[in-house]
Amino acid sequence: MFIVKRTALFILSLALITGCHDPHAMVNVRPANLPAEIERASAEKKLLLIEFGSSDSCPPCVRLEREVFSKSEFTAYAESNLVFVRLDFPFRSDLPADTQATNELLAKKFDVGPFPTFIALNSVGKEFWRMPAKDDPHPVLDTRIFEPKFFIDMIDSVRRQKP
């Protein structure tokens, strides 16, 4: 009995030390190369969608990962229709310095406010759609966004309006 308690205590301690990170965390280890992604999206005739979020301190971001982005319905859609650039701003884990600097630079360039923020770029890298809107002082997230079909339909409508 003593060994079982000790083992349980060890596992709990290890979990607390390592931070109990979500296995689906979106921590990007390499810096995004936005010019290359813009070029790839243009060449492949796909929508370039950027997500600014936090894999460990933004409940909607974590929920989107778990309920939308990790689902086969979305991954199949994204593979055929998107160049999906996910920029992570974790609170509990450190990114490599170059990745953190790149993410912060892009967040500043696009004047990103709350997480998650999604931005679509055209073939020359100009923003033409954003959610939430930049001028919305109190954005409210539509809970249907956590349904893969709703999210895909929303992004598909953005893709159709691409200039």
Quickly list its features:
single chain; 163 residues; alpha+beta; Glutaredoxin; 4-stranded mixed sheet; 6 helices; 46% helix; globular; disordered N terminus
Task: Give structural notes.
21% of the residues are buried. The chain is built from six helices and four strands, in the order ααβααβαββα. The protein has one domain (34-160): Glutaredoxin (3-Layer(aba) Sandwich). It has a four-stranded mixed beta sheet. With 163 residues, it is an alpha+beta fold. It is 46% helix and 15% strand.
**Chain-averaged pLDDT:** 86
Tally of structural domains: 1
Kindly provide the name of the CATH class: Alpha Beta
Overall radius of gyration: 18 Å
Q: What pattern of helices and strands is seen along the backbone? A: HHEHHEHEEH
Summarize the structure.
The protein has 163 residues and is α+β, with helices and mostly antiparallel strands. It is built from six helices and four strands; from the N terminus they run ααβααβαββα. The protein has a four-stranded mixed β-sheet.
Strands, helices and their partners?
Blueprint lengths: L1 H17 L15 H11 L2 E7 L5 H11 L2 H10 E7 L8 H13 L7 E5 L5 E5 L16 H13 L3
Parallel strand pairs: 1-2
Antiparallel strand pairs: 1-3, 3-4
Helix pairs in contact: 4-6
